[in-house]
Description:
- The protein is mostly helical.
- It has helices at residues 3-14, 21-48, 89-115, 119-122, 133-151, 164-171, 177-180, 182-194, 198-219, 234-256, 265-277, 281-288, and strands at 71-75, 78-82, 223-225, 231-233.
Amino acid sequence: MHPEELDGMRRSLAIGGSLTRADTERLLDTCASLRAEQAAIARIVAELGPSFPPGARSPQRTGADRRGGAVRCSVKGTHRTFSPGDRPTLALVDAFAERGAILAEAWQWWATTLTELDAVAWQRETRLPGWDVAALSAHASLLVRGLSVLSSQPLDTEPAVRSACDMLRGFNTPGGVATTIADAIAEMARRHAASMQPHGLVAAFTVTAPQVIASLEGSGPIVIEYFGNGTFPIAEAMSIAVLEAVVHGLDLCAAVDWPASSIPPSPMHHTVGLLASMTEPVSFIEAATGRTSTPVLPVLC
Protein backbone atom coordinates (compact mmCIF):
# COMPACT_ATOMS: atom_id res chain seq x y z
CA MET A 1 0.00 0.00 0.00
CA HIS A 2 1.37 3.38 -1.01
CA PRO A 3 1.60 6.30 1.43
CA GLU A 4 -0.99 8.21 -0.65
CA GLU A 5 -3.56 5.47 -0.02
CA LEU A 6 -2.91 5.57 3.72
CA ASP A 7 -3.27 9.36 3.72
CA GLY A 8 -6.59 9.05 1.90
CA MET A 9 -7.89 6.59 4.50
CA ARG A 10 -6.72 8.87 7.30
CA ARG A 11 -8.55 11.88 5.82
CA SER A 12 -11.68 9.84 5.29
CA LEU A 13 -11.75 8.72 8.92
CA ALA A 14 -10.98 12.25 10.13
CA ILE A 15 -14.17 13.65 8.53
CA GLY A 16 -16.35 10.88 9.85
CA GLY A 17 -16.16 8.53 6.91
CA SER A 18 -15.61 4.78 7.00
CA LEU A 19 -13.32 2.32 5.27
CA THR A 20 -14.57 0.10 2.50
CA ARG A 21 -14.06 -3.64 2.80
CA ALA A 22 -11.34 -3.47 0.13
CA ASP A 23 -9.59 -0.68 2.04
CA THR A 24 -9.73 -2.71 5.24
CA GLU A 25 -8.27 -5.79 3.54
CA ARG A 26 -5.43 -3.74 2.02
CA LEU A 27 -4.70 -2.18 5.39
CA LEU A 28 -4.59 -5.59 7.08
CA ASP A 29 -2.27 -6.91 4.35
CA THR A 30 0.04 -3.93 4.86
CA CYS A 31 0.14 -4.50 8.63
CA ALA A 32 0.97 -8.17 8.12
CA SER A 33 3.73 -7.27 5.67
CA LEU A 34 5.20 -4.76 8.10
CA ARG A 35 5.15 -7.30 10.93
CA ALA A 36 6.91 -9.87 8.73
CA GLU A 37 9.51 -7.32 7.72
CA GLN A 38 10.10 -6.26 11.31
CA ALA A 39 10.64 -9.88 12.30
CA ALA A 40 13.05 -10.39 9.38
CA ILE A 41 15.10 -7.36 10.39
CA ALA A 42 15.17 -8.55 14.00
CA ARG A 43 16.46 -11.96 12.86
CA ILE A 44 19.21 -10.37 10.75
CA VAL A 45 20.34 -8.09 13.55
CA ALA A 46 20.31 -10.98 16.03
CA GLU A 47 22.40 -13.11 13.67
CA LEU A 48 24.93 -10.33 13.12
CA GLY A 49 25.22 -9.53 16.81
CA PRO A 50 28.52 -7.81 17.67
CA SER A 51 29.88 -8.55 14.20
CA PHE A 52 27.64 -5.93 12.56
CA PRO A 53 30.19 -4.16 10.35
CA PRO A 54 31.79 -0.94 11.64
CA GLY A 55 30.21 2.08 10.01
CA ALA A 56 27.05 0.18 9.06
CA ARG A 57 23.68 1.73 9.81
CA SER A 58 20.75 -0.38 10.95
CA PRO A 59 18.85 -2.06 8.10
CA GLN A 60 16.22 0.33 6.71
CA ARG A 61 13.35 0.14 4.26
CA THR A 62 13.36 2.16 1.08
CA GLY A 63 10.36 3.38 -0.85
CA ALA A 64 10.93 0.92 -3.68
CA ASP A 65 11.07 -1.95 -1.18
CA ARG A 66 7.77 -1.38 0.63
CA ARG A 67 6.01 -4.43 -0.71
CA GLY A 68 8.76 -7.01 -0.74
CA GLY A 69 10.04 -6.78 2.81
CA ALA A 70 13.51 -5.92 1.52
CA VAL A 71 16.07 -4.15 3.66
CA ARG A 72 18.96 -1.91 2.76
CA CYS A 73 22.25 -1.51 4.58
CA SER A 74 24.68 1.34 3.98
CA VAL A 75 28.41 1.27 4.70
CA LYS A 76 30.26 4.46 3.93
CA GLY A 77 28.26 5.19 0.80
CA THR A 78 27.99 1.59 -0.38
CA HIS A 79 24.41 0.32 -0.56
CA ARG A 80 23.10 -3.23 -0.84
CA THR A 81 19.49 -4.41 -0.77
CA PHE A 82 18.40 -7.85 0.44
CA SER A 83 15.13 -9.68 0.85
CA PRO A 84 14.42 -11.20 4.28
CA GLY A 85 15.37 -14.63 2.96
CA ASP A 86 18.87 -13.47 2.04
CA ARG A 87 20.26 -14.44 5.39
CA PRO A 88 23.82 -13.47 4.49
CA THR A 89 25.00 -11.73 3.97
CA LEU A 90 24.17 -8.34 5.04
CA ALA A 91 27.24 -8.19 7.26
CA LEU A 92 29.36 -10.25 4.88
CA VAL A 93 28.69 -8.21 1.76
CA ASP A 94 29.07 -4.81 3.37
CA ALA A 95 32.19 -5.79 5.30
CA PHE A 96 33.51 -7.08 1.97
CA ALA A 97 32.80 -3.73 0.30
CA GLU A 98 34.63 -1.88 3.05
CA ARG A 99 37.57 -4.28 2.80
CA GLY A 100 37.79 -3.57 -0.92
CA ALA A 101 37.84 0.17 -0.28
CA ILE A 102 40.71 -0.21 2.20
CA LEU A 103 42.70 -2.35 -0.23
CA ALA A 104 42.10 0.16 -3.02
CA GLU A 105 43.54 2.91 -0.79
CA ALA A 106 46.63 0.85 -0.02
CA TRP A 107 47.29 0.04 -3.67
CA GLN A 108 46.66 3.63 -4.70
CA TRP A 109 49.36 4.70 -2.25
CA TRP A 110 51.79 2.34 -4.00
CA ALA A 111 50.75 3.75 -7.38
CA THR A 112 51.37 7.31 -6.24
CA THR A 113 54.65 6.56 -4.48
CA LEU A 114 56.23 4.46 -7.22
CA THR A 115 55.29 7.08 -9.81
CA GLU A 116 57.42 9.59 -7.90
CA LEU A 117 60.62 7.48 -7.88
CA ASP A 118 63.58 8.40 -10.05
CA ALA A 119 66.03 5.96 -11.66
CA VAL A 120 68.40 6.05 -8.69
CA ALA A 121 65.65 5.25 -6.17
CA TRP A 122 64.74 2.01 -7.96
CA GLN A 123 68.24 0.71 -7.31
CA ARG A 124 68.39 1.56 -3.62
CA GLU A 125 68.82 -1.33 -1.22
CA THR A 126 65.99 -2.02 1.22
CA ARG A 127 66.19 -3.34 4.77
CA LEU A 128 65.23 -6.77 3.40
CA PRO A 129 68.49 -8.57 2.52
CA GLY A 130 69.01 -9.03 -1.21
CA TRP A 131 66.12 -6.80 -2.28
CA ASP A 132 66.48 -3.41 -3.87
CA VAL A 133 63.44 -1.18 -4.38
CA ALA A 134 62.67 -2.84 -7.72
CA ALA A 135 62.61 -6.33 -6.14
CA LEU A 136 60.51 -5.07 -3.24
CA SER A 137 58.02 -3.53 -5.65
CA ALA A 138 57.94 -6.69 -7.75
CA HIS A 139 57.10 -8.71 -4.64
CA ALA A 140 54.41 -6.23 -3.59
CA SER A 141 52.80 -6.49 -7.02
CA LEU A 142 52.42 -10.27 -6.85
CA LEU A 143 49.20 -10.16 -4.82
CA VAL A 144 47.74 -7.67 -7.28
CA ARG A 145 47.96 -10.28 -10.01
CA GLY A 146 47.26 -13.10 -7.57
CA LEU A 147 43.95 -11.66 -6.39
CA SER A 148 42.94 -11.12 -10.01
CA VAL A 149 43.32 -14.84 -10.63
CA LEU A 150 41.60 -15.83 -7.38
CA SER A 151 38.57 -13.62 -8.06
CA SER A 152 37.86 -15.63 -11.22
CA GLN A 153 37.95 -19.01 -9.48
CA PRO A 154 35.07 -19.22 -6.98
CA LEU A 155 34.45 -22.49 -5.16
CA ASP A 156 31.14 -23.86 -3.94
CA THR A 157 32.42 -24.96 -0.55
CA GLU A 158 32.95 -23.85 3.00
CA PRO A 159 36.35 -22.30 3.85
CA ALA A 160 38.79 -24.62 5.60
CA VAL A 161 40.56 -21.55 7.01
CA ARG A 162 38.16 -18.81 7.99
CA SER A 163 40.26 -15.78 8.87
CA ALA A 164 43.41 -13.96 7.80
CA CYS A 165 44.62 -14.32 11.38
CA ASP A 166 44.38 -18.13 11.22
CA MET A 167 46.00 -18.30 7.79
CA LEU A 168 48.92 -16.13 8.89
CA ARG A 169 49.35 -18.09 12.11
CA GLY A 170 49.62 -21.24 10.03
CA PHE A 171 52.20 -19.62 7.77
CA ASN A 172 54.31 -18.59 10.75
CA THR A 173 54.29 -21.78 12.79
CA PRO A 174 57.59 -23.70 12.97
CA GLY A 175 58.00 -25.33 9.57
CA GLY A 176 55.35 -23.05 8.05
CA VAL A 177 55.60 -21.60 4.56
CA ALA A 178 56.84 -18.25 5.90
CA THR A 179 60.17 -19.94 6.53
CA THR A 180 60.21 -22.95 4.20
CA ILE A 181 59.64 -20.98 1.00
CA ALA A 182 61.10 -17.62 2.05
CA ASP A 183 64.20 -18.04 -0.11
CA ALA A 184 62.14 -19.04 -3.13
CA ILE A 185 59.89 -16.00 -2.72
CA ALA A 186 62.90 -13.72 -2.43
CA GLU A 187 64.43 -15.14 -5.59
CA MET A 188 61.12 -14.89 -7.44
CA ALA A 189 60.92 -11.19 -6.61
CA ARG A 190 64.46 -10.57 -7.86
CA ARG A 191 63.79 -12.39 -11.12
CA HIS A 192 60.48 -10.62 -11.62
CA ALA A 193 62.13 -7.24 -11.09
CA ALA A 194 64.96 -8.12 -13.47
CA SER A 195 62.47 -9.04 -16.19
CA MET A 196 60.60 -5.73 -16.04
CA GLN A 197 61.33 -2.06 -16.47
CA PRO A 198 60.25 0.25 -13.63
CA HIS A 199 57.31 1.52 -15.67
CA GLY A 200 55.96 -2.04 -15.78
CA LEU A 201 56.11 -2.29 -11.98
CA VAL A 202 54.37 1.08 -11.70
CA ALA A 203 51.65 -0.10 -14.08
CA ALA A 204 50.87 -3.02 -11.77
CA PHE A 205 49.46 -0.46 -9.36
CA THR A 206 48.34 2.37 -11.64
CA VAL A 207 46.60 0.19 -14.24
CA THR A 208 46.18 -3.39 -13.04
CA ALA A 209 45.27 -2.74 -9.41
CA PRO A 210 42.10 -0.70 -10.15
CA GLN A 211 41.03 -3.42 -12.59
CA VAL A 212 41.54 -6.05 -9.89
CA ILE A 213 39.48 -4.04 -7.38
CA ALA A 214 36.67 -3.90 -9.94
CA SER A 215 37.00 -7.65 -10.51
CA LEU A 216 36.83 -8.31 -6.77
CA GLU A 217 33.72 -6.15 -6.48
CA GLY A 218 32.18 -8.17 -9.29
CA SER A 219 33.00 -11.53 -7.73
CA GLY A 220 31.66 -10.64 -4.30
CA PRO A 221 32.53 -12.44 -1.04
CA ILE A 222 33.36 -15.80 -2.60
CA VAL A 223 35.44 -18.69 -1.28
CA ILE A 224 38.65 -19.50 -3.13
CA GLU A 225 41.64 -21.86 -2.91
CA TYR A 226 44.42 -19.72 -1.46
CA PHE A 227 47.49 -20.70 -3.45
CA GLY A 228 47.44 -24.31 -2.25
CA ASN A 229 46.98 -23.37 1.43
CA GLY A 230 43.33 -24.31 1.78
CA THR A 231 39.93 -22.90 0.93
CA PHE A 232 39.60 -19.36 2.19
CA PRO A 233 37.20 -16.38 2.01
CA ILE A 234 38.50 -13.96 -0.60
CA ALA A 235 37.70 -11.08 1.77
CA GLU A 236 40.31 -12.53 4.13
CA ALA A 237 42.78 -12.81 1.26
CA MET A 238 42.14 -9.11 0.69
CA SER A 239 42.95 -8.51 4.36
CA ILE A 240 46.33 -10.20 3.92
CA ALA A 241 46.89 -8.07 0.80
CA VAL A 242 46.27 -4.92 2.85
CA LEU A 243 48.80 -6.09 5.44
CA GLU A 244 51.36 -6.89 2.74
CA ALA A 245 50.87 -3.49 1.12
CA VAL A 246 51.35 -1.67 4.43
CA VAL A 247 54.27 -3.71 5.79
CA HIS A 248 56.19 -3.52 2.52
CA GLY A 249 55.05 0.07 2.10
CA LEU A 250 56.95 0.85 5.28
CA ASP A 251 59.96 -0.99 3.83
CA LEU A 252 59.69 1.24 0.76
CA CYS A 253 59.42 4.40 2.87
CA ALA A 254 62.56 3.45 4.79
CA ALA A 255 64.48 2.79 1.55
CA VAL A 256 63.59 6.00 -0.30
CA ASP A 257 63.24 8.37 2.68
CA TRP A 258 59.50 8.73 2.16
CA PRO A 259 57.33 9.65 5.19
CA ALA A 260 55.61 6.61 6.67
CA SER A 261 52.72 8.90 7.61
CA SER A 262 51.88 9.12 3.90
CA ILE A 263 50.34 5.62 4.08
CA PRO A 264 46.58 6.17 4.47
CA PRO A 265 45.10 5.66 7.97
CA SER A 266 42.53 3.01 7.00
CA PRO A 267 45.04 0.44 5.67
CA MET A 268 47.37 1.23 8.56
CA HIS A 269 44.67 0.70 11.18
CA HIS A 270 43.51 -2.48 9.47
CA THR A 271 47.04 -3.85 9.60
CA VAL A 272 47.44 -2.96 13.27
CA GLY A 273 44.20 -4.78 14.08
CA LEU A 274 45.18 -7.87 12.11
CA LEU A 275 48.62 -8.11 13.70
CA ALA A 276 47.19 -7.58 17.19
CA SER A 277 44.63 -10.35 16.57
CA MET A 278 47.48 -12.81 16.03
CA THR A 279 48.76 -12.39 19.58
CA GLU A 280 47.51 -14.13 22.71
CA PRO A 281 45.02 -11.53 24.00
CA VAL A 282 45.98 -11.38 27.71
CA SER A 283 49.71 -11.28 26.99
CA PHE A 284 49.23 -8.56 24.38
CA ILE A 285 47.06 -6.39 26.63
CA GLU A 286 49.44 -6.69 29.55
CA ALA A 287 52.49 -6.00 27.40
CA ALA A 288 50.81 -3.03 25.71
CA THR A 289 49.91 -1.53 29.08
CA GLY A 290 53.32 -2.10 30.67
CA ARG A 291 52.15 -4.82 33.04
CA THR A 292 54.57 -7.49 31.87
CA SER A 293 57.98 -7.71 30.27
CA THR A 294 57.18 -11.02 28.56
CA PRO A 295 57.72 -10.50 24.81
CA VAL A 296 54.70 -11.04 22.58
CA LEU A 297 56.24 -9.83 19.32
CA PRO A 298 57.01 -10.46 16.55
CA VAL A 299 54.02 -12.42 15.28
CA LEU A 300 55.28 -12.66 11.69
CA CYS A 301 58.57 -14.12 10.54
